[in-house]
Structures are given as C-alpha cells and as structure tokens.
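INTERNAL AUDIT FORM
Audit reference: QA-55
Scope: verify that the stored structure record matches its stored sequence.
Auditor: D.O.
Record contents follow.
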Amino acid sequence: MVAESLRSGDGSVSRRSHRYHRPLDDIRNPLRPRPFHCPACRISGFHLAAAGTRPDIRLQLTPESSIDGKVLDEAGDPVIGAEIQIYSSVARAGRRAVVASGTTNTNGAGEYRIGDLSAGRYRFCAHSSKPAWPVGGGDPLLYTESCYPAQPLPVASGVELRQNFTLLAVKGVHIRGTVSGLPDGARAVIRLGLTSSRIATGGSFDLAGVVPGGYTIEGLADVDGRSVLAVTRVEVGGSDLDHVVLAFVPGVIVTVNVGGVPEDASVAVSLVPSDPAWDPGKPDWDTNRQAFVFPSVAPGRYRVAVPPLRHPYYVKSILWDGQDASDSELTITSPVTIDIAAGEGLGALEGAVADDAGKPVAAEVMLLRGNQSPWRGTAQPDGRFSMENLPPGEYQAYAFDDARNAEYAEPGWMESHAGTPVSVTIRAGASADVRLIRRLLKIQR
C-alpha cells in the first residue's frame, strides 16, 4: 500500500479486512455467504516531516471475537425476537463501569449471533418483552431475564463463544409505595427500566408487570422550576412488593465562575460524579461562557473537570468556597460556588519509552495531577514522544500500551497495575525530560 501527496504533520492510519460467515437470515442457505468486518487494532499516529520523506508504517489486524447460540423457553421452544443485550466493562473517567454497548435479536429459530467483538470484558443478557400465553388459557406471563456470566467475562481476540439462554415465564408482580419530600400536587414520574408510573393522589405509585430481580427505582419531579430527584434499590421476588418509600431530594445549585481568560476564549467545565445516581446535566452559561450554573445536581461526590484551555492559558486553581479543589473530590450537599482561575505560561515535556528489556517501544503516555483529567501523549515506535502546552506543576508520568484501560481515578488499581510513576516537574517556558517503562494493560480489560 502506498499513499502519496500527503501534507506534512501528524496523522493516523486504520485498516479493515473482510472475512465471511453465514448470517442468521441465511442460516438455511449455506450458499449465500456475506462479509463482515474484522476490526483493526488501534494504530499509533505518525508524523510526516519534510517533503520527500516516507515513513514505514506497519498495520497489525486483530481478529474479531463472537458469541452465538439460542434463546429458548422452559419447554425448549425458541423465543422469537428475543433481545440480546451486550454489556461491556470499560474504564470511564478513570473508573471501571459496565455499560450497554449493543443489541441483537433472535431469528425465527431462536438463534442469535454477535460478531465484531474486540478484546475486552463482556456480559450478555437475554430478555423478551413479548407475553407468554399459558397452555389452557389464563393471564399472560412475562419472561424473566437470563444473563451470562454473573460478572463480565474476559474475552480475548479471535475467541468464538457459544451460549444458550433459557427464559422462564412467570407472573408479573406490582411494586407499590409512596413518596416523601414533595409538596402537595407536585407532578412526578417514577421509572423502573422501561416501566413508569405517575404519582397518584395521596403520593402513591404502582409499577405493574415486574418480574423477579434487583432494580433501581428512580423518580424525577419539577417543583417551582427546579428538578427534585429520588432513587432507591429494591429486590423483587415472586409476589407483590408493597410499602416502598421513595424520598425526593432537591437538586443542588452549583455556580461556577471562570476568571483570567479573555472573553473570546470559551471554557468547558463538567462535574464528574464519583458514584452517580444521576447525570449532573449541562450548565446554563452566560453569553461569554465564563460564568454558569448547574441548576440541579444530585447530592454526592464530584470531581471538577476542565479540558485544556486555549494557548497560552491553563487552569491555575479551582477553589470551592475558598478551599483548593484542584486535586480532590467535592462532597456536594448544598448550594456551592466554584471559582476557576486561569494563568498564562505553559511548559513542555519530552522523553522516551522502553519495554522491560530496555528496547524502545510505542506507547501511550499519561500525566496525572491529583484528581484532574489526565494529559495524554503518544510515543512513536522509536520510543520518543513530546507533549506541549502543559500547565506548570508537579505530575506523575506513566506509559501504557493502551491507556483506555487505565483506571487512573482508583488509587488501589493504579498501585496494583500501573507500576511506579515517574515524578515530573513542568515549568513555564521550559521543557522537561523523562524516561518511562511501558506497562501492558490490555490483559487487564
């Protein structure tokens, strides 16, 4: 492969190859194979220098993994149109989280297939929203959910899994309860997955058609233009669950002021929850985006995240009611004001990365400073890297094969898997130098 007439600068390359399989729609006709994509592993970027240079770029493809099987009922009959939900265990904002990452449905024979799975940790759940009618008549039954495995399973590249699911048909039950913390006449919605219920007269609610399992019940109400929130966890068995109390708590107003940057330099700020029950939402900005309000933040612990500012500015300090919050989480239980101050004068970092044997290797470089979002760089195959526009201060430097898997917000995980960091001091107008050893994190996915 040759690419010509490229401009100098940084770039990246990706590649897809095609293999063949029999999609479920054609499972009865093996003469009609169709291609599917085999995703490539992520390719490190490259730098194209002056005209006439030709870097040698090597692409390595990673074979896909897959899972297939059947969804059956208790009698061994296929459940047509059942949904298979894929859950991935990923690192989000430096913490491990299990997130929904895709779905597929069974065909007329109850068969399913999920391909294009990259290496990672997965959990698969099967369910059906269609009712099951009992033999001999009677009220319709509901299918329970079936999951595999209990905890996310490590799946390497090129693995072909097979798993059948059996869905039990049971009688749906009710979850009934009352709410507290709302004025009379307040309108609210109670949610449990796809099931919802409005609050009735007297502050009661009734969620019908629930199958056994563990659930989180959420409530959202509007009181005088402000959101009021509620959340509780329940375990549902084979009979109705009564007397559940859902306590509503007003969302907290968080005001943020930004100083030290010109009016035309926009600033983006977010609140990253430590263990969120609710999304803190988007702030309401003023016209120059330097002062804003989060109108309704659920009480809890949060980290203030500010992406890099426009050159030559950087975040100098984050103050919470006069206390430094740059390197710590905030416990928000009442209205609070956060002041962000910007400074001028940035530094740089250069260095090299090697493996355990001392051989130069490509890597992803991560700089950590307290609880702030990390600064990231890329080491080329010769091990060299450079990072510019860094705020002055003390950092901990790491090098990983795949920094997407780094749970940098979890000190225990970093101590066990990330190795000993290298301390780096960045000074305004100067460039520091560092040598790093790459740690392999792909096996930790």
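Auditor finding: record pair retrieved intact. The domain at 252-344 is CATH 2.60.40.10 (Immunoglobulin-like).
Action required: none
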